[in-house]
């Protein structure tokens, strides 16, 4: 058997095992795992981890996000492709040299793509979790600042009234709904990165209320929400002083609430 034939046979076996484990994109994941493995022994270890339900991104150590390979480590929220809507809105709204904050940054995926698409912008990221902040520092090295702390309390005081855009993918899953999430999320990602409280909007409320003290005029706050939360989130933004609107990306299944502060 040629090397090519052996590789094809190996890939077919991996696909079958992943499909049996319930992986929806078994073919794509098999290609990624085969490419990541140095030898058959390493491949077997990777496949075992995936079959056991561990997120593919933790296994390979990265995820493709907005044309970048973003480093992701266990204990950090895995970026979802739908969150690129926040990036696209920020790029649309921001001036080239804007100061942009990636709040609840996790791996820093949003800030990393923004740094690429708006190279003259000042990118600042913040997260309360030290593991996430360390991961974000890797992804934003040389391209942005990362601060550790609780929401806006993490930021340097000199940023007050000088932030042009805040993008924030805060946890927004209602507590009771976490049990219905796919096992790879609810069993492997930290619950704090998913749990948004009773209605899923606890963090959104805190961000919306605090943001006006930090934002320039005019400025924008852009946050991801679930479909059933969009109108309530708009009401929260309005009560905090923003003119609010809803943006949707049906192809990605993404919804964002956009607040304008004049």
Automatic annotation (TrEMBL):
EC top class, as a word: transferase
SUPFAM superfamilies, per database record: S-adenosyl-L-methionine-dependent methyltransferases (SSF53335)
A Gene Ontology molecular function term of the record: peptide chain release factor N(5)-glutamine methyltransferase activity
Annotated keywords: Methyltransferase, S-adenosyl-L-methionine, Transferase
GO biological process: one example: methylation
EC number: 2.1.1.297
Positions of the Methyltransferase small domain: 85-175
InterPro entries to which the protein is assigned, alphabetical: HemK-like (IPR004556), MeTrfrase_put (IPR022446), N5-glutamine_MTase (IPR050320), SAM-dependent_MTases_sf (IPR029063), Small_mtfrase_dom (IPR007848)
Catalytic activity: L-glutaminyl-[peptide chain release factor] + S-adenosyl-L-methionine = N(5)-methyl-L-glutaminyl-[peptide chain release factor] + S-adenosyl-L-homocysteine + H(+)
NCBIfam families, alphabetized: hemK_fam, PrmC_rel_meth
Protein name: peptide chain release factor N(5)-glutamine methyltransferase
Species this protein is from: Williamsia limnetica
